[in-house]
Amino acid sequence: MKTVLAFLKPYKLPAVVAFLLMLIELTVELMLPFFLGKMINEGVVNQDIDTIMMWGVIMIGLAFIAFIAGIINSFYSSHVGWGFAHDIRKKLFAKIQAFSFANLNQYPTSGLMTRFTNDVRQIQNTIYMILRIMSKAPLLVIGGVIMAFVVNARLALIFLITVPILVGFILWVLKRASGLFNKIQNSIDKVNRVMQENLSGMRLIKAFSRRNHEETRFTEANKTLANRTRYTFRFIESSMPVLLFVMNLSLIFIIWFGNLQTISGTTSVGDVVAIINYAMRVAMSISMFTFIIMGISRMKASADRVDQVLNVDVDLKDHDEADSSLRVKQGFITFDHVSFIYPGTTKSVLSNVRFSVNPGERLAVIGSTGSGKTSLFQLIPRLYDATEGEIRIDHRPTTDYTLDNLRRSIGYVPQSPLLFTGTVAENIAWGKEHASTKEIIHAAKDAQIHDAIMELDNQYQTKVGQKGVNLSGGQKQRISIARALIRNPKILMLDDSTSALDLTTESKLLHAMESYECTTLLITQKISTAMRADRILLIDEGKVLAIGTHEELLHSSSLYQRIVTSQFGKEYANVE
Ligand code: M5T
Ligand code: MG
């Protein structure tokens, strides 16, 4: 909770103002029973209308002041709440932007979403309530007891017994409730996760006709949430009658004992009325504790969850020795004895990988599924860091570059293309800040998608829906290629990005890409594509089996021969 609460710092002043205004309200509330007692003792008992009027006017005046203080307090409290929530969201967002892939794997999207929305709102509401009324309740209990002693110490003794019992009981409930609310928050996560997967996988669910299965999953998550919420609230609500019972007992005792004293003449009627009034206010404040408990324990649960994210160690950041003026100039890539294991796993995905790619060279990476091709790609822009060995670009370790400079020089087309909500033009321009229309069209033409875009209803201004559902797989691939090309990268990486293209289009694309002065790495399953590269890297089970031209591999690698045979037939491999 600490990290989150530190965000209150800039709001010290309005928070203090709110607190002071609350103190005014509190003082008035504490004075009113006292004056009421005086009004009865001096005015009512003596039947003195003037005195009654005087105290009446004073009390109305005070109540009015409290009323105004309350309104201004509310204004300041909500200001603190909103500002505070805004700052946390901003910080959370920035933090998540800095997350490495490994960090992201740790926190599912739904969990992050819940933190952004539900958790932050929970904290905001509680902060508001604390400034508005919650902090008043305990002070009112303390002040009420003190004032009761001021009015009549003998009658007030009863508070010394009841208040500690009640406070102890409340603390116990608080401790218990905090754990329960944590569980509720986790269940909300779960419901969100199921819902999110459901929405993003709706087409698949329909195609596989798995509606019932999904419904069961949702019903279960939802039921757990409902059960936990019910249990927690029942627990808290059942503490309420206990509180009221103890408080009412003490009220009865005050009335009974006060009555005896008034009859014997040791206490005045006004004092008894004032003490009863204090007892009622103390009782009200104590019963408010239930809400305070709910609020604070919910806030604690939420704040801890937000804390978790804010305190995550981002394991991938600029090295201290990174030189911010260093840029990738040529695109010379070296893998020097690189081994890689995904964080949190034990399986070696790449072992002892060694190869170099010259500036401007085109290298095809070929290998069976799961052999580590994508993993190898991810190491270059430092989406993950190699476990062992070093990757150098232009003879400098990738860690010498700032992440920003390194990634800026790379055009990466991931294996599953992702489009953002927006127009086609915006999606292409996403690759380069301030891209002109001319550049967008140029990149689209090179990516062989221009003609297809022109056939869309609004051409470049066509909106692609969430995840670009209204485009074909091949169209999405080519838009994401255009997005990479528009950067004019020094290093272009295509992860199986031409798999959905027909041979003619693919051929045109590869031809157009030749005009870009960059080192190109392309993962492919097709020998025909690989053959168009300068050299081919054959990878299997995380090891580099061979690297060389098509002819060289045909002679040196039996696995390569087998792949060629399976794609082109026996004759071809033999003839070569
Ligand atoms: C190689 C594992 C995967 C596989 C091996 C991306 C990714 C992969 N793996 C992880 O544990 N976590 C990850 O985030 O690594 O996987 P790859 O590099 O994706 O293989 P590929 O690109 O050659 O395969 P494909 O199917 O794309 O051709 O054991 O479990
Ligand atoms: Mg892959």
From TrEMBL:
Primary location recorded for the protein, binned into one broad class: membrane
Keyword Lipid metabolism: no
GO molecular function annotation: ATP binding
UniProt topology in membrane: Multi-pass membrane protein
ABC transmembrane type-1 domain boundaries: 16-298
Alphabetized UniProt keyword annotations: ATP-binding, Membrane, Nucleotide-binding, Transmembrane, Transmembrane helix
InterPro entries given in the database record: AAA+_ATPase (IPR003593), ABC1_TM_dom (IPR011527), ABC1_TM_sf (IPR036640), ABC_transporter-like_ATP-bd (IPR003439), ABC_transporter-like_CS (IPR017871), P-loop_NTPase (IPR027417), Type_1_exporter (IPR039421)
Transmembrane regions listed in the UniProt entry: 12-32, 52-76, 129-149, 155-174, 240-258, 278-296
Pfam families: ABC_membrane, ABC_tran
Ranges where the ABC transporter domain occurs: 333-566
Cellular localization per UniProt: Cell membrane
Name this protein carries in UniProt: ABC transporter ATP-binding protein YfiB
Organism of this sequence: Virgibacillus kapii
Lineage: Bacteria, Bacillati, Bacillota, Bacilli, Bacillales
